[in-house]
Amino acid sequence: MHIAIAGNIGCGKTTLTRMLAAHYGWTPKYESVDFNPYLSDFYEDMERWSFNLQIYFLNKRFKDVVTIANSDDVIVQDRTIYEDARIFAPNLHDMGLMSSRDFENYSDLFDLMMSLVGKPDLLIYLRSSIPNLISQIQKRGREYEKSIRIDYLSGLNEKYENWIKDYDGNLLIIDADNIKFGNRPEDFEKVTDLIEAHLNGLFDNT
To answer: In this structure, what CATH number is given to the domain that contains residue 126?
Structure first.
């Protein structure tokens, strides 16, 4: 089974992935950021490195999706392949930070990949406001994130909302501004109750 967690930078995806894996005994699949050879360069010069970064992510994410599809485990994934193609690449293109030529090339590759795989069994979207995202980004203190532009985050949030509005799979939306699952056990319990309701008994939650 494939449980995927989606949301903007700093919304709490990795925290929720870790907590769900520990709570249910699921296998976590984390987003690789610490060893990304393009990320630091990208935040310094987005236009120069946008295509390289997005191809890197697409490659890594597709490998993850194929691995998940061939696994018998319940896997909870930190960020999805859809976010790269439906959120991040279009946002860079709209901001003039990725050329139309590169964006069309990227989109064609994504469409080919997605013809070979299916949707997650459950997509969990962590909805968060820009002030909350900025607060969380500052708290975790990653050096390469210090130069993230607010207009970049805002553009991402807008595209997340548009994507989620039209998403036709099994979807659970969590208000990450008010449900502080990382700090309050009662809020994490709310999240697990909602997950179990959406999965309709497809796993043993005893």
So the answer is: 3.40.50.300
